[in-house]
Automatic annotation (TrEMBL):
GO terms for molecular function: transmembrane transporter activity. This is High-affinity branched-chain amino acid transport system permease protein LivH. Belongs to the binding-protein-dependent transport system permease family. LivHM subfamily. The chain crosses the membrane at residues 12-31, 38-55, 61-84, 96-114, 141-161, 190-213, 219-236, 243-264, 284-302. GO terms for cellular component: plasma membrane. One of its GO terms (biological process) is amino acid transport. The gene is livH_4. InterPro entries: ABC_transp_permease (IPR001851), BCAA_transport_permease (IPR052157).
Length: 307
């Protein structure tokens, strides 16, 4: 039982890392730009598809990753230039409707270009295999590499935001955007940089998860819902909050889906426990969100007085 718990704990951490990579850019967009972008999950999906395409063309995972990241960044910049910047001064309802329509358009575009059948990406030989953890328990090297890459990205993003001039502007923009604009900062350029960074992080998450999960047109929508949960729990605009909330949500979701039916068997018959567990487990992250908001309405690290 302990080995199974440790395994699911690592799987939850790995899933949380992916959630953080997607949520980091989106929480900055929320916090700095006050822009609701439902289409952010599309960048995660596009990153995975570009990874599958470039890895297949070059025959190399590493070349595929090196090409997929800048390609996703460019794709995000094109969307920002053609669509998003025209919505910055519109109401939140307009933003929701426009970005939801963009999800439908891009999902259909992906089906036209790549088809509806799932795609697969071969795992690099360097990161294949498993390592021993405890007793007979083995854990895939690639999943450990995903965790390490996500932690490195989190540290790099923390250093960028807290120890660079660009990060200072981001933090100031999140706190008081009109004042930053009054001081002569090009807000449009700042917005573009935020979108570019968020697009590349989301694309990176999609690219590195491609060898683990199948690449399909619906993968962006599935992760977007949990990404919003992460942002709400962590606090809008907080990278630290997004990281801690993503790990928490990933662990609760993964461990709950595995151990929920097991724990319910203590008080219910196996068939009923299995069925009830499958129904209750997906609700755990939303119960967690409700509990956090009851304790702190702005999230774990949200700004007090934030609307």
């Amino acid at each position: 039982m302990f080995n199974l718990f440790l395994l699911q704990l690592l799987n939850g951490a790995q899933f949380g890392i992916l959630l953080f990579l997607v949520a980091a850019g989106l929480t900055l967009v929320f916090g700095i730009m006050d822009f609701i972008n439902l289409a952010h999950g599309v960048l995660y999906m596009v990153g995975a598809y570009l990874m599958a395409t470039f890895a297949g063309m070059t025959g190399s995972y590493w070349f595929g990753l090196a090409l997929a990241l800048p390609a996703t960044l460019v794709f995000g910049l094109v969307l920002e230039f053609l669509v998003f910047r025209r919505l910055y001064d519109r109401s939140h309802l307009d933003q929701v409707l426009a970005t939801f329509g963009l999800i439908l358009m891009l999902s259909e575009g992906v089906k036209i270009l790549w088809g509806s059948a799932p795609l697969n990406v071969d795992m690099p030989a360097l990161l294949s295999g498993s390592v021993p953890l405890a007793g007979p328990l083995q854990y895939p090297v690639y999943r450990i590499a995903v965790i390490a890459a996500g932690l490195a990205s989190a540290v790099g993003l923390w250093a960028l935001i807290n120890h660079t001039r660009a990060g200072m502007l981001l933090r100031a923009g999140a706190s008081n955007r009109p004042m930053v604009a009054a001081l002569g900062v090009d807000i449009s350029r700042l917005f573009m940089l935020v979108f570019a960074g968020g697009a590349m992080l989301a694309g990176f998450a999609g690219a590195i998860v491609a060898p683990i999960l199948s690449v399909d047109p619906g993968m962006g929508e599935s992760i977007l819902i949990l990404t919003f949960v992460v942002i709400v729990i962590g606090g809008v605009g907080s990278i630290r909050g997004a990281f801690l909330a993503a790990i928490l949500v990933g662990v609760v979701d993964t461990v709950g889906r595995t151990f929920g039916p097991i724990w319910l068997r203590m008080v219910m018959d196996p068939a009923a426990a299995s069925q009830t567990g499958r129904m209750v487990a997906p609700m755990l992250v939303y119960l967690l969100m409700a509990a956090v908001l009851f304790w702190s309405p702005t999230g774990l690290f949200g700004r007090k007085g934030a609307k």
